[in-house]
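Weekly sync notes, structure subgroup
Attendees: PM, AL, DS (notes)

Item 1: joint prediction request from the bench team. They want all two components modeled as one assembly rather than separately. Inputs as received:
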Amino acid sequence: MAQLNMVQAINGALTHEMGRDDRVVVLGEDVGKVGGVFRVTEGLYDKFGEDRVIDTPLAEGGIIGTAIGMALYGLRPVPEIQFSDFIFPAFDQIVSEAAKMRWRSGGEYSCPMVIRTPVGGGIRGGLYHSQSPESLFIHTSGLKVVCPSNPYDAKGLLLAAIRDDDPVLFMEPKRVYRAVKMDVPEEDYEVPIGEAKVVREGDGVTIVSWGAMVYEALTAAEQVGQDGVDCEVIDLRTLWPLDVDTIVRSVKKTGRLVVVHEAPKTCGFGAEVVQRVMEQAFLHLEAPPVRVTGWDTPFPYTLENEYLPLAHRIAPALMSTATF
Amino acid sequence: MSDASDDPLLGLRHVIRDDGSADPDTDPFLPEETLLAMYRELLKIRRIDVRMLGKQRQGKVGFFGTITGQEATPIGTAFATRQSDWVFPALRESAIMICRGFPLSTWLAQAYGNSADVLKGRQMPSHMSGRAVNQVAWSSCIGPQIPQAVGAAFAARQRGDDTVMVGFMGDGATSQPDFHSAMTFAKRWNAPVVLICQNNHWSISVPTEKQTASKTIAVKARAYGMPGIRVDGNDVLAVYAAVDEAVRRAREGGGPTFIESVTYRIGPHSSSDDPTRYRSAEEVESWAAKDPIERFERYLRKAELIDDAKRAAILDELEAEIAAAIDAVEDLGPPPRESLFEDVYEALPPNLAEQRDALRALPEAPKGH
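Output from the run, pasted for the record:
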């Protein structure tokens, strides 16, 4: 089995699905000849031609607006927003249009499409190449939001997303793109949307995270493990619809919860995760749930590692939660 | 653009002259039955406006956006397109659905938002759409449908279909980024799309001259590399001819066309608007004198296709048809409250199933607003 990084795994998924289904088209800024600024779409242009791998004009609203039209007509567009920080010119098309098309048309029209976009920090990208805007999209009914943390899940989730009949926001943690290699099967497989994964078992503290911060959570778990705190780490993989059951099952076992995400704390998705646990496992809690997150500031360039909830910030939170 | 008459700065395309005769150079020479069918549709939607504004005043419907004075654009477009062509409407094009055979009672049910509404009571009145007639569902936000029409046109061509997309907007929408990107993408892709701006001179209270310093709206098309046509939007035959030409060009692979249809909103922006706060009665009167239906009627009378008796007979028929359609739906109840949770996603996710069950356990909410 081939050892692939996330860029290769996503590229493989796109190549596979475009070969299998001629309704699938890729469009966005620089996705064609150059293969995307992260080279995720490399080779697709030569393989499938400029009518299916489309270098668009530089207009995110136009990219998503036209992709919606394509989806309405029956294509399966996979538009790319080059950085999730650039998604806001398309915000109206995503939240008012794609997300609401099925509902506002009484179920007569739908927008099956996958908006791929790199998210998160860790590449010294400053405030406009680093953000994690997932909460804004989860708050909008009608969208599914996915964020794989590794190459295997990235391929399986992307195939599931393209075949899904609803619009999916597919967030790719750019810090992980080339940092991790693992076995990725060549054959067709799906990782179901809506299923979290327990990536480390333990009965001391439950850590819920996603994307690049899963690795930080695992590192912190190893650190506190040396002090006798045995953490269970859940990689959400799909942010919405949320796999509440997997989280609640874990918290009922551990009685303690720490949520880790890069996005700012206030109204971050961690708040929703915590509240779900309060609703369904309140009497099992041994300590107040804790959030370790980005600060409520814009994302910095020089002080990037001060902003990110890295292992050195997670570990103390785990210890204080474990000893509350 | 080789023909100087195509220059959007050189004035409007007309067919019907003031005396009711047609300019033989621009007349589309439609068959009699088509002309009479157009006339019937024009009268019908004018009459629907009167009835529905009345219903709004009586409190039977919550809101209504009339198209009085602007009927020529939707009707001309409906007759110049095929049933298989798609329409991406804005606020004043829903009448196209009626021309294309959408049942009037179901169309009216949308204004009542009741159990016969295919949109399940989810949208404000005057936001009609229907897959049965390829009229795409739209939002109250201004402009997002324009790039969507372009994308759908790209898709139709890619699938090997000869479907043409028609995307509508008002003059205010041409200030939006979505207009700019739609125009950019449309010509860049040479997409089979016709983009039609109903310039009715007012975006609620803001006149077109405050909207843009551009001399015309049609001229903007030039910079995007596509034909920009300026047509008299109160002349149904001129609209028909312009849209017909643009649709043919799109279908034959000639790419997009932008049409500015110059007209006037005789009524308020909507039933919630008071236009006396921002425009003069004289201005409205001057445009009322250019009424598109009266103008077309002069043409039909001169051609001896109608007379007072025929007109009265058509109006009687329409009155009965509209009254029957209203009666069929007016007293229907609301959609079932659980329908709120349908169609958010293709399948019901756990959180919505939980909320649906929570709603079911509640007493019904108080009625009224």
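Discussion: Strands of chain B lie at 86-88, 165-170, 193-199, 202-203, 206-207, 228-232, 257-262.
Action: AL to compare against the crosslinking data before next sync.
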